Amino acid sequence: MEKILQIVRILSQKKAQDIVVLDISKLTIIADYFIICSASNIQHVKALVDEIEEKSPADILRIEGRESYRWVVVDYGDVILHIFHEKEREFYNLERLWIDAPKVEIAI
Fold this sequence. Notes:
The protein is an alpha+beta fold. The chain has four helices and five strands.
């Protein structure tokens, strides 16, 4: 949980919008948690990705989505971070797809 808290702090300090943590551990084997956030423009998405990569509290296995910076996925293995441009977040609506996943309250 410390890793999640550190990631959320980094995102918050860089002004990520609407940060949500979902506990998906009982619903799938792909990860234990999703962290979802958004940014209002491509430059902000890129800045969030750069900051996470620079200050990451754990080893990143891979980063996907840098081609367009519309939806970037940062894979930590047990945690998957989704950084969305706000239009893509609205369109894909992961929170709706994973409606059965409990939200985890994180105090920053």
